[in-house]
Amino acid sequence: MKNLYEQAKDCFLTVDPDEKLELSLEIVGAWDSGLLEWKEVDPLLHPPLQLNQPGRPDKPELVDVHKVKNRGFKSIHQRASLIHALAHIELTAVNLSWDSIYRYRHMPKDYYDDWVQTAKEETQHFYLLRQRLRDMGYDYGDFPAHNELWQMAVNTADDLMARMAIVHRVLEARALDVVPFSVGKFRGIGDSQTADALVIIANDEIGHVNSGARWFRYRCEQEQLDPDKMFFTLMQKYLKSTPKGPFNREARLKAGFSLAEMQELERLDAEFKRNRQL
């Protein structure tokens, strides 16, 4: 019987996006069919390698986040650039899912179920967005992209609690706030296909962020820490700031944010805006 961790590592290190995504869905199918072992692996005898870079093609070119431009809705080129940016995030999220499986051991089966399901949905999201790019005369790799999401995964790699809090509950959760706006803009210009794809992505992302919340709180409980306080402590440690609004409160509550967390996020955002006006 094949091993889940080794399969996850192979997918993570695969360079060609088509091969990576095909393998991703193969692993999902094998896991769902009960064909992959996971309990039998002794991490003391077979410790996970410290893999800090996924397999990645030569394109897109990775640049500083501030150098990524030309995204918007006015022209096909700008819209394609925006879709490309989202596709790059989804491919990064595929790598994140398999890395979270390979890297973190001694977790309940539900943990691996959650991230295998997330890998499946992120793979499907990339296919949806890549098809929209191709329909517009572009393809993945035609625009530069930034590496901010993956770099934060590296920064938090040695701490599952921080990985769940920062990567999934801060960076990934931002999609809950901004994607509905993009849906409206694409519908407004008559691009219902892209809008429909983004609705699917937005709905699935609620589940992904919720998985991050679930395992963040699981680790807090293990360490007898207050999750509401730790969330903001970790943001200060890794980001030196908190996310800026407006926030999609309804979606965030569905995605596992507590009411106390939302109230504190909104309070800090209001305080930031007041100070900026002074």
Could you provide a short overview of the structure?
The chain contains eleven helices and two strands, in the order βααβααααααααα. It is mostly helical and 278 residues long.
Provide an overview of this structure.
The protein has eleven helices and two strands. The N and C termini lie far apart (64 Å). The protein is globular. The model has no long low-confidence stretch (mean pLDDT 93). Helix 3 packs antiparallel against helix 4, helix 4 runs antiparallel to helix 8 and helix 6 packs antiparallel against helix 8 (192-222). The protein has a single domain (61-277), classed as Up-down Bundle (Ferritin). It has a two-stranded parallel sheet with strand order 1-2. It is mostly helical.
Describe the structure using short key phrases:
two-stranded parallel sheet; mainly alpha; 278 residues; globular
What's the SSE blueprint?
Elements (H helix, E strand, L loop, with lengths): L1 E2 H10 L3 H16 L3 E2 L38 H28 L5 H27 L12 H8 L4 H12 L2 H15 L3 H31 L4 H12 L10 H6 L4 H19 L1
Parallel strand pairs: 1-2
Helix pairs in contact: 1-2, 1-3, 2-4, 3-4, 4-8, 5-6, 6-8, 6-9, 7-8
